[in-house]
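Sequence in, structure out.
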Amino acid sequence: MIHLLALGGDPLFDKGVDFAVVLIVCLKTIVTFAVLMVAVLFMVWFERKLISDMQNRIGPNRAGPWGLLQTLADGIKLFFKEDLLPERADRRIFRLAPYLSAVPAFLSFAIVPIGGTVSMFGHHTRLQLADPPIGILFLLAMSSIAVYGVMLAGWSSGSKYPLLGSVRASAQMVSYEAALGLTVATIVLITGSLYTSQIVVSQGGSIAHWNLIRLGILPFFLFVIAATAELNRPPFDLVEAEQELVGGFHTEYSSIRFALFFLAEFMNTVTMSAVIVTLFLGGPNGPRFGLHGLLGDWLLPIVWFVVKLFVFLFFYVWLRAALPRLRYDQLMDLGWKALIPVALAWLLVIAAIQVAPDTIAGRAAYIGGALAVGGVCALMLFRSLALGKARVLEEDLHS
């Protein structure tokens, strides 16, 4: 039996906690972890296979049909490799760092709703592991904590190149976390809730209600760029630039500890794609085609969520195959001179529209002011990009 509840919070705890509630929570945790692990295994295979197609290669094709079991084979191989510990490493921090990267990725995925509300063992519960009242703040906290794994891994390795990678990670996180937070603030402002379930409910009805449209598209692009930098995905993967840092922060890692970093990177990609779908594209909302019951109210929302998620996974693989890595000064310029000013200005625009008087003259005045601010933002963006290109040309001429 399916119930669609518009109230914030998981209805599982409305009548207190008993044995059935504990059992449901444990079951949801196991299922969520298993689904995320399978998604990560698929993402690794999908990225290798798709890039090989783009580069006219074959890609994984030995282990299992179409090479589907290649990721599992690589994981087993890494598990049985020798676990090295550098002589000059800080042993406790060196061993702790991989878990500080992997655990926040799973915790971030826990607040993502992938469907409606179902009835189980006499209790109603949402198809998401947790729906805390500070869901968005929890997401930002986890994205901030994840960088500590990278920073501590580089610092504790006792080597210079991993240390440089960790310093880059801290600077990159500070630069793009600000733009990410300002973009999320626009979503909270227009939704009026920190619950991820409420954000999904507010986008129901039609595509016109998606935050992608309601916020004017620009915050979506800002969030995607900032999220890509937070994930250390190309073209922002300067933290592990092998041409400069011999692999970056995880140079000294091997065996299962290296596998945890590898797992965390792809898990973060799946998690952030799911977060983008939740915040901007309506989450599991989509056409029901007149279907109700088990198929229309339970299965179709999951299908819509998976389809939207797959689009972003393809997008991230496409970026890796198509774009070269930025220089570090370009990375910093984009974050501080473009994304943060534009995100802050657009937040003010959304706030002005929200408080605009409900009259034609009042709305015209506020919209005019918003357009003026938007024009200034666009000029700032183009000016920073033009200055960056001019500096590159000047350096090329001198060299």
